[in-house]
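Input record (one chain):
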Amino acid sequence: MPSSPIRILARHFEGVVLPCPPAELPELITLAEVLDQVPDPRRVRGRRYRLGVLLALCTVAVLSGATSLACIARFAADSGPDLRRRLGLAATTPVATTLGRLLSRLDGDALDDAVSAWLARLATDPVEEPTPALTGLAVDGKTVRGSRNDGTAVHLLAAALHASQAVVAQRQVEAKSNEIPAFAPLLDQLDLHGMVVTADAMHTQREHAEHITAASGHYILIVKGNQKKLRKQMKELPWREVPLTDRTRDTGHGRREIRRLKVCTVRPGLLFPHAVQAIEIKRRRTSRRTGKTSVKTVYAVTSLSPGQATPAQLAALIRGHWSVGALHHLRDVTFAEDASRIRTGTAPRVMATLRNLAIGLMRQAGWANLAAATDHYRSRPEHALDLLHLAA
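The corresponding structure, as predicted from the sequence alone:
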């Protein structure tokens, strides 16, 4: 197996310049070996294939656009002899019911830990710079709506890197709880040095801010009505006297948007732990279809000082947070997650993890259009095997 993924990925995109191609990772083990470390719920007697082989099969199928267990089983049955040999499959292939029983009994936390650590290693540039750049880490939750059973559905809280959309940590939220108690355990798995955690207003909690800074990380958190005193304090700051520090203009999704950002240093004074700067963002959106214009003001707090991040960097980090929302949209649109009817045991969570893995791999390979990527891997599944670093 090649020691670097660069030659492997270059076979997929001859003549295409990859954004931030992965550096040399000679110590990177294959994905099948990583997945083999997940506890196998099956009895030893009667096992035909290793767990890593079956999970690698599922991953290649999802990369090729499979959206259900039946699609994965059909992909396995239709695969050619060379692909089966490289995957480690014999003449017989697993059927949908067999895969369903396996996925429904897997340890979701163990699988997420293995996949997230592998993706983080693949997405992280190991080259050390004299002044390391700030890395955005978006925390957001998503309900797998098709998994609804007995009135409840699987809800997952994930941490994803802004730049690559790689999910580097994920946890399932308890059925009778919400995302807030799951926030700290999610981040406990990660090294937050150089990380800037971004999250919506639900996670603008004093305990969360203390947890992030205690782990040597930074935060940018949106302030809304759940922090009434803080929001009132933010609104009363002398914003008219604060100069405009950043302005961006975007066009897309049927609208034109202008964002104006002001930053005010407030240390000490804000009613929030370790808050150094207050941020005001004014978003002016104009619908290209109706011509209607709306203006919205959003406030945020950050532990980053003026010397640690410029206004342009703060604006980029705030915009970058929506990459996790785009990730969830991709899971719904390209991989039909909400339309899925997989409901048994941990199978809905496992499939969501495999979709995260597929998206992370595609982004790392340089794909901008994931629908085109699934078409590519559907017709060239051997490229998906190369992408997973499976030995030929």
